[in-house]
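Title: Comparing notes on inverse folding

I've been comparing how different people in this forum approach sequence design from structure. To keep things fair, I'm posting one structure and asking everyone to reply with a full sequence. Here's the target:
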């Protein structure tokens, strides 16, 4: 059985940027499949908001770092919907404790890398194979993969080196899959968020309020999940179909070098 509308997989969509992305893609008419480690009860409010859009919503609780969970997730989505058109690799974690690169531990390194980089790589591999099969069977499919990296893929923060390394790795995942999947018309894009107001950053709210006020970003405001969600929506629209491996900074201009 294959449902009629496009199916979007969004990792880490229980809250934050992922929730914003799922909401936007549901507004765009997609059925949504969420892969998140959070138990659904804790995401109840957001799931309810999402369901209001009237599209089918499938929530799977699992750990992106676990091969078994990734595999079960893919099987369940295919059983539920019979197709995958969009993959948004959004789930990611910061180190549990910020530690300088001269002190950080292998445990912290593995925690961040196993989720952000290894988990994302192998989920992408699994879903890319599903997408390739779909395209081979029906050339009308035009799947898209969108990776949510970070300004940390190029900006150094020695107090969370493992996070920066994982995000730099995501940028290479974008290039590798864009290259490999181009023959199947599966386009791969990357969004580099700047400072976005979510649970991840609200712990450092005061610090960033001050920095933004002082001009850290040319556009003097926080970003919001909706800012990222709209960029995802544009990539999924098909209006950029002759572009792949493309990166968009959604960061209020943070990446500009200024004098
Ligand atoms: N908030 C920012 O300023 C900012 C900036 C740049 C990049 N990002 C990136 O955007 C993405 C989303 O960030 P956010 O701010 O919404 O964070 P968040 O912590 O609010 O949300 C992350 C989501 O991922 C889920 N998750 C965590 N570990 C998981 C695992 N092992 N398996 C499955 N799901 C898991 C969480 O449960 C949560 O729902 C992350 O990849 C983050 O690195 C965020």
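Reply #1:
Here's my take.
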């Amino acid at each position: 059985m294959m449902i009629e509308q496009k199916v979007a997989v969004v990792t880490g969509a229980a809250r934050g940027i992922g929730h914003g992305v799922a909401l936007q893609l549901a507004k765009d008419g997609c059925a949504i499949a969420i892969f998140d480690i959070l138990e659904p009860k804790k995401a109840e409010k957001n799931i309810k908001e999402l369901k209001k859009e009237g599209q089918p919503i499938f929530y799977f609780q699992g750990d992106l770092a676990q091969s078994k969970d990734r595999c079960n997730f893919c099987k369940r989505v295919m059983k539920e919907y019979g197709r995958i058109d969009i993959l948004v690799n959004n789930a990611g974690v910061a180190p549990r404790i910020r530690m300088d690169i001269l002190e950080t531990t292998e445990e912290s390194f593995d925690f961040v890398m196993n989720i952000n980089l290894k988990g994302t790589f192998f989920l992408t591999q699994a879903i890319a194979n599903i997408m390739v099969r779909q395209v081979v069977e029906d050339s009308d499919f035009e799947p898209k993969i969108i990776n949510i990296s970070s300004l940390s893929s190029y900006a150094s923060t020695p107090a969370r080196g493992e996070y920066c390394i994982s995000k730099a790795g995501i940028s290479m995942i974008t290039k590798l899959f864009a290259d490999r999947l181009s023959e199947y018309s599966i386009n791969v894009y990357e969004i580099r968020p700047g400072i976005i107001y979510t649970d991840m950053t609200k712990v450092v709210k005061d610090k960033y309020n001050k920095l933004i006020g002082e001009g850290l970003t040319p556009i003097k405001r926080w970003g919001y999940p909706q800012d990222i969600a709209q960029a995802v929506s544009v990539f999924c629209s098909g209006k950029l179909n002759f572009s792949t491996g493309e990166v968009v900074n959604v960061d209020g201009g943070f990446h500009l070098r200024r004098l």
